[in-house]
Write a structure and sequence with these properties.
heterodimer, A: 198 residues, alpha+beta, Alpha-Beta Plaits, B: 637 residues, alpha/beta, 6-stranded parallel β-sheet
Chain lengths: 198, 637
């Protein structure tokens, strides 16, 4: 199956993926309407670890830990896209799915899909409705820097292997010089921030 | 548990207050930085364009995504436009400050503002002479009006000739170089590129125009205009601010003050002046020290009123009135957290909006005063020059009245403050040298002093507070390099105890001997950030004395903890004047290899000045020493 693959060295932390996801999952599909709307669902979060940024979302495991753990039967697999889908109407907010998720990709709050104004679990649905139409997940479409790719793993593996070999064998840089410098300076800036007092 | 505070500040008072902030879970600039992580890389790389609403457009720095914005702007164009806009904003902030001083001087001269007077007639005469304004047989108000008019003319004139202040103050060789550069560029390209500013306001407006949708897309043209606009700041707006403030309030003289949070007094009404302009704070200091107000404070149970400065308003009243300084930019929240501040009165620039909510957690009144800086949650007392005394009185009274509400249980004043010898205007430096720069040139030629580094500007919460300022300064003086500077650097150096006469013990043997001979510290406080113009004037005096251009001199600039757009303008006018400039953190330009190359390499050949980035204080000092050695070799030293 196709998955969302992350190349975090290319993530610029613009959070364009977060915005695109929020719009895609908002009932109005409007950027203006989600401003100030606390029930907006954002299924991908760009998290910072020191100088690095990583867009975290569901890995759509198979078999999925969360699906096996859910006593309410709220989690199922989309037969077409293979996505792990959480039905918020059935969710009892017991937290079992979040506890077993190895990627911490399940969050809780009152969303527009939560029944009765109570908190439920929510997670990435791989934009299955879009994927079925032959479109990319919204986050991947929004990503300008190539940090997110929605592809078959074999394609990704070949490309990466080729790129890494070009670097190793031919000395070609995978990242442009100034971008590599930017990453290095960012690393140094953070390293200095963490320095203890002399 | 890992202690955050020592990683956030190199200042012992800062560390103590940050521990209190952590204990009391107080929000601070450091907490907000953490919450902002990760910060957008497009913004940091300069490749986000929000200029029109076909966008926003972002150019993928990795090369996989679009390489042009909707209009076709490349990363080079977008980065250059954004950088040039930063210079325009910074130059405008400095210059608008200068405009108010010129307007005030004019009104004082014409008698329409009576709360101020011409304090320094010697300086007035000197400025007039420099500008070619007749002084013989004329009254001081007459001369002052002509000087003010000449300054205001620099802001608003419409012809293409260079502004009068720049022409009068810029060293001759530099002026000729820039003029020739304009001519050469026209001859070789057929296109007009301007470097000599025509009008202070005009150069900022020019940038707003040329960076509008569908105008200048040429990175070189954009960067050169940022140089012209910045020169209009350094040799125009900022210079006018410095010179005319000296006329109105007195040219700074050498004096001793104390620096850091320990200058707050537990039993007194503490009034903090924060921001950048001395016009109001001079009056606040005057009234706070009056017998009437001191008595009023005693009536409320305080032992009196203690005024302390913050940021560049602090530097202004420190240089002229000897007012102690509580701290630099990153101290602005910490000072309120002491619980001992009755009022913080602010004018313009570098004032966190967050101060209002923080002040509301205490009895502290945050008082805004400028039409241009209003903050929700603050008490606004409108300042106007023609009723300056009345406004200042009301501010001081507001502070006194707040004293009763102080919660003594929450008061903690960190017992840290250092003595600092300050007040080094160019006039004072020349006086120490015996009236001419010749002795300074001689000790540089002898090698006792290898060169001079001018350090400016800002704290940046991304850098451990004051750490770069302290380490770089200490490194340089140990290498016999004289360090001069302004702004938040100067406060950092003062807080670190680096501006004492005894600091010469940390200096190299050559610099130490010179300091002993002249009776000066090896680290020289030259004022607020508009007073970077004093450094330009000093550099100009050295260049003119030797009959060389500024880029021949062993001078380097540095903004090692910079934050603001004003710092972009300062760095750029240093570069445009021929001084290499160190920056840390890295400016938002790396998204464009072309712009990065113009700033760090091409500028050297064209202007003599150029930018370089270095994240380690010791390595930065190495680089500066190497540049100074290169310049010395060029001079045959």
């Amino acid at each position: 199956m196709r998955k969302i693959f992350v190349d975090y060295t290319r993530c610029v932390a613009c959070k364009g993926c977060e915005i695109a996801c929020a719009v895609e999952h908002h009932p109005s599909r409007s950027l203006a309407d989600l401003v100030g709307d606390g029930r907006t669902q954002v299924n991908v979060r760009v998290l910072a670890v020191e100088h690095e940024a990583f867009p975290v979302s569901c890995r759509h495991c198979d078999p999925a830990w969360c699906m096996a753990a859910c006593p309410a039967g709220a989690i199922s697999r989309d037969p077409v896209t293979g996505a792990v889908i959480l039905d918020q109407a059935r969710c009892k907010a017991c937290g079992m799915c979040a506890m077993v998720c190895p990627f911490d990709a399940i969050a809780f709050k009152v969303t527009h899909a939560s029944p009765g104004g109570r908190e439920t679990a929510f997670k990435c649905d791989l934009c299955s409705h879009r994927v079925r139409e032959g479109r990319l997940p919204a986050c991947v479409e929004a990503c300008h820097s190539g940090a997110l790719a929605f592809r078959e793993h074999e394609e990704v593996r070949r490309d990466r292997a080729t790129r890494n070999l070009r670097e190793y064998l031919l000395g070609e840089r995978a990242l442009p010089d100034t971008f590599a410098l930017y990453r290095e300076l960012r690393r140094k800036e953070f390293a200095r921030r963490g320095e203890p007092a002399p | 548990m890992e202690r955050k505070a020592p990683m956030r500040s190199a200042d012992p008072a800062g560390v103590e207050m940050l521990e209190i902030a952590e204990r009391d879970r107080l929000d601070s600039v450091w907490e907000r930085l953490e919450k902002q992580q990760p910060q957008c890389g497009y913004g940091q790389l300069g490749t986000c364009c929000r200029i029109c609403v076909m966008g926003p457009c972002r150019i993928d720095p990795v090369g996989d995504g679009p390489t042009r914005g909707v209009c076709g702007a490349t990363a080079d164009t977008i980065v250059a436009r954004n950088l040039t806009r930063m210079a325009a904003v910074g130059a405008s902030a400095h210059s608008d400050h200068g405009r108010k001083v010129a307007l005030t001087l004019k009104e004082v001269a014409e008698g329409t503002v009576t709360d101020y007077r011409i304090t320094d007639t010697e300086k007035l005469t000197a400025v007039a002479a420099k500008l070619g304004i007749a002084v013989e047989g004329r009254s001081f108000p007459d001369v002052a009006r002509d000087v003010a008019d000449a300054a205001l003319h620099c802001f608003g004139k419409q012809d293409d000739a260079p502004i009068a202040f720049l022409e009068a103050y810029m060293p001759a060789k530099r002026f000729e170089r820039l003029k020739k550069l304009e001519d050469d560029l026209l001859a070789s390209t057929g296109a007009r590129y301007g470097l000599l500013p025509r009008g202070i306001d005009r150069e900022s407006v020019d940038i707003l125009h040329r960076t509008h949708f569908g105008c200048d897309a040429d990175p070189l043209s954009l960067v050169l205009q940022s140089v012209r606009c910045s020169l209009a700041d350094g040799w125009g707006g900022s210079l006018i601010a410095t010179e005319l403030q000296d006329v109105l309030f007195g040219t700074p003289r050498v004096k001793t003050v104390r620096a850091n949070l320990g200058v707050l007094e537990e039993d007194m009404v503490n009034l903090i002046v924060h921001g950048h302009e001395p016009i109001l704070s001079e009056k606040v200091v005057e009234h706070a020290l009056s017998d009437e107000m001191q008595q009023r404070a005693r009536d409320k149970g305080a032992k009196g009123i203690n005024v302390a400065g913050l940021c560049c308003t602090g530097n202004e009243v420190l240089m002229r009135q000897g007012v102690n300084v509580a701290g630099n930019e990153l101290h602005s929240e910490l000072v309120i957290m002491t619980g001992a501040v009755e009022a913080m009165v602010v004018d313009v620039q570098c004032i966190y909006p967050a101060l209002a909510d923080l002040a509301a957690c205490y009895h502290t009144k945050l008082i805004t005063t400028s039409e241009q800086t209003k903050i929700p949650g603050a008490l606004h007392i409108q300042f106007e020059e023609h009723r300056a005394d009345a406004v200042a009185r009301r501010i001081v009274e507001t502070a006194i009245d707040a004293f009763e509400a102080r919660n003594r249980g929450r008061v903690y004043i960190p017992p840290h403050s250092e003595e600092a010898v300050v007040g080094f205007s160019v006039e004072e430096i020349l006086k120490a040298l015996g009236g001419t720069v010749a002795p300074l040139v001689k000790v540089i030629a002898d090698g006792a002093i290898k060169g001079v580094v001018g350090v400016v500007g800002c704290n940046n919460v991304k850098v451990r507070q004051d750490s770069f300022h302290r380490e770089l300064t200490a490194e340089l003086i140990a290498r016999d390099i004289l360090v001069i500077g302004t702004g938040c650097w100067a406060i950092a150096a003062a807080k670190a105890g680096l501006m004492q006469l005894s600091t010469r013990e940390q200096a190299g043997p050559g610099l130490k001997a010179v300091c002993e001979q002249l009776g000066i510290p090896p680290v020289i406080h030259m004022g607020s950030c508009v007073d970077c113009s004093r450094m330009l004037v000093l550099a100009g005096a050295l260049a003119d004395h030797l009959g060389v251009d500024v880029d021949a001199l062993p001078l380097v600039g540095s903004a090692p903890e910079w934050t603001t757009e004003k710092a972009v303008a300062i760095g750029t006018y240093f570069v445009g004047t021929g001084v290499p400039v160190h920056l840390w953190p890295v400016p938002p330009v790396l998204g464009s290899p072309a712009v990065t190359k113009i700033l760090t390499e091409d500028a050297k050949g064209v202007l003599g000045g150029y930018f370089f980035v270095e994240e380690d204080p010791k390595a930065a000092a190495d680089r500066m020493e190497a540049i100074i050695a290169e310049k010395r070799a060029g001079l045959g030293l």
